[in-house]
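Lecture notes, unit on protein representations.

Consider one protein chain, 252 amino acids long.
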Amino acid sequence: MGFRFKAFGLHLASSAGALLLVLTALYLGWYRWPGWYLTGVVKIAAMMMGVDVILGPLLTLVVANEKKSTRELTRDIGIIVAVQVVALVYGASTLWIGRPLYYAFSVNELQMTQASDLNPAQVALARRENPDFAPHWYSLPRWVWAPLPEDPDTRNKIVSGVVMGGGDDVIQMPRYFRPWRQGEAQLRRQLVQVDALRQFSKSQKESLKRRMQQLGFAADQAITLPMEGRAGFLVAIFDPATLQVRTLLRVD
């Protein structure tokens, strides 16, 4: 029995170490708050943990037997490790493809843009027309202003494409991105009170107002904007003087 638990312990330690290394690198680089919440990455991380830290070592506990030959034991554990590696690579590549690249203020809300939201044609255009904001494999998340283009025809084409479905939104077009500070005048005009946030129910708004008051913010002041991601919404609270994001509140 001691042999089984020793094999289990070694397998658990190595599996947990490999998973921790991958998740830590992705978290520190791309998925820090609010990225981990807006992308819903917790579900993928839980799947990876279930296979690599729980299922794999438990299977080793079952198959490890000191009476087996070295060849047989190596084969059995090798199969388990191979499945774990596939799960780890799949999970890590999914997280990499979906990593947050931009937190954009556009029109009247904040939105997250993930790497998977950008098609190669838009990336190529950005590298030619707006290289300072073009994404690269090493790009970390940036806060940007994503205004609609000034040309009416181009603007209408983007809006109609989004409304009808199938077209790229301006937050998926880095060639139009501008520094955050250049959008502050527009941002100030879009700030609203919590009661004006149409994305949330009455009970959610009441909960948000209570939490704002607990944090020292005036709930009746126009200092909020919704922030949208693939997994849901947050509420961004701004400093009315500097227009810097003071905090991001969950509504669940």
